[in-house]
Write a structure and sequence with these properties.
- With about 60 residues, the protein is α+β, with helices and mostly antiparallel strands.
- It has a domain of about 40 residues.
- It contains 1 helix and 4 strands, in the order ββββα.
- It has a 4-stranded antiparallel beta sheet with strand order 1-2-3-4.
- A hairpin with a 4-residue loop joins strand 2 and strand 3.
- The longest helix has 9 residues.
- The protein is flat and about 40 Å long.
- The termini are far apart.
């Protein structure tokens, strides 16, 4: 079964091609990095996992403040 996904670009994606896109469905959140290959592989996670990810506090990368 093929499903047409509606992809949304992250508001944090810059104008130089670095793009993270998500396509939510009722049972799965699809995530892709579209800067090199928008038809390439996707990461698929549950809505519960997505909510936990979005709720996690942001931490700076090591060595950054």
């Amino acid at each position: 079964m093929s499903v047409d996904l509606n992809w949304f670009k992250s508001s944090y994606s810059g104008g130089e091609g670095e793009c993270l896109e998500v396509a939510p469905t009722p049972t799965t959140i699809h995530i892709r990095d579209s800067k090199l290959n928008p038809t390439g592989p996707t990461l698929q996670i549950s809505p519960t996992t997505w909510t936990a990810f979005l709720s996690a506090p942001a931490r700076p990368a090591p060595g950054r403040t």
